[in-house]
Amino acid sequence: MKTVLQSVPLFIPKLVPVGLLLLGLLLGFVWAYGIRPMVYTAAEPVNLGESWKQEYIKQVAWQLSASGDTNNAKNQLSYLGNAKDVVDAMIATNADPQNLTPKLQQLEPFAANNPDQQAKVSPNLLNANYTPLLCLVALALVVGVPIIVNTLVPIGMLFQRRSTAPTTVQTGLDKERREANTAAQAQKTDFAKTAPDRGAPVTQFVTTYLLNDDVYDESFAIELPSNEFLGETGAGISKTLTDGKPKLVTAMELWVFDKNDIRTVTKVIMSENAYNDPAIRAELAPKGEAVLATKGGIVTLETQTLTLQGRIVNLSYGTGNSPPNSFFDQLSLEIAAWQKKDPATAAPATAPTAADPYTGDTGKFPA
Questions:
Q1: Three-state DSSP class for 158?
Q2: Do residue 268 and residue 336 come from a single domain?
């Protein structure tokens, strides 16, 4: 039984409103047609059944025989709608040849069908026997279908405004970025061999910056195999030489956020030109410790319960009118994170830097 219940689609409970709607409609019809049915009042002659129309015609026939008023006979018969058909049928049956039939024959020339009266009782979309059923189906379609569709695919999603935030991967760089990440993945470190004291990292990522990716900013969640969230890490642009397109990136940030630590630790990976420029180093000092970008270089960050290592897998500089080795053409990072085995004895995290426009006094928290 438990297996059967588990196989029931999760959206079934959401269809309860549809069931309640249909139940309400059903109860309404029971009330309208069973408990308190419609009662007709002030019916016209055209609404009479065939047997009662015959009685009506008998009265008109006797009245004509007695008064001879043909105009009155015409008017009275016109209200029946199908007076000619009924009179002809009564004469054909010849039910009372001694008394009634001669009077009906006298009345026959004044009996005529009246289309205007017949239209009042002719079945159409609004007064046919199936009209209540059509009303039920129409109401179910108008109300029920949107509810069902909204249950399966929320209608609000169709009208949700798309984000206008720029993508972190510029159009046209997707293929190149995938190729760069694939090449970096092939060079990923086997930490089980190179760092047996740490063991396998909790998580391991590869990210690549390419020239023209002017809004590059990637982040990754650090989670245990049990999906327990430990923190977040990522890399992004720290400084550019120009604000034009493409931006010439001369420094990148590598950061880690620990959920058990209010601080976000950041280190700045600088190009050779930036690292050797005292003005740039002083400008970026509030963001974090400066690290010279070198292929194969290791950047280590520590928080209260996490150790993060970023390794520069691939590095190339762009060329142009700027000083040599001043901006990156490509920078691929391998990022690995470990949970400290004994947080109580772990080294304290690097102190946050003040006056950072991104972090203030507590460090940069990822978006």
A1: helix
A2: yes
Strand 298-302, strand 306-317: pairing: antiparallel
Question: Do 77 and 178 have their domain in common?
Answer: no
Please list the pLDDT of the chain residue by residue as tens digits (367 residues).
444 444 444 445 656 777 777 888 788 878 877 887 777 777 788 888 888 989 998 999 889 888 889 899 899 989 988 989 988 998 898 878 888 888 888 888 988 898 888 888 876 666 556 666 777 777 777 777 777 766 665 555 555 454 444 444 445 677 888 888 888 888 877 766 666 677 788 888 899 999 988 889 999 999 998 889 999 999 999 999 987 788 999 999 999 999 988 788 999 999 999 999 999 999 999 999 999 999 999 999 999 999 999 999 999 999 888 899 999 999 999 999 999 876 554 444 444 444 443 334 444 434 3
Q: How many domains is the chain partitioned into structurally?
A: 3
- Collapse the DSSP code of 20 into the 3-class scheme (helix H, G, I; strand E, B; otherwise coil) and give the result: helix
Are 142 and 14 found together in one domain? Answer: yes
Residue 133, class by beta-carbon neighbours within 10 Å (0-12 exposed, 13-18 middle, 19+ buried)? exposed
**Alpha helix segments (H runs only) across the chain:** 2-6, 16-30, 50-67, 70-78, 83-93, 100-107, 115-118, 131-139, 145-152, 156-159, 174-185, 191-194, 272-275, 278-284
Verify that 71 and 151 share a domain, yes or no: no
Q: How far is CA 314 from CA 235, 259, 347, in A?
A: 15, 30, 30
Q: Is the pTM of this model over 0.85?
A: no
CB 107 within 8 A of CB 54: no
Residues 321, 273 within the same domain:
yes
- Statement to judge: residues 275 and 316 lie in one domain: yes
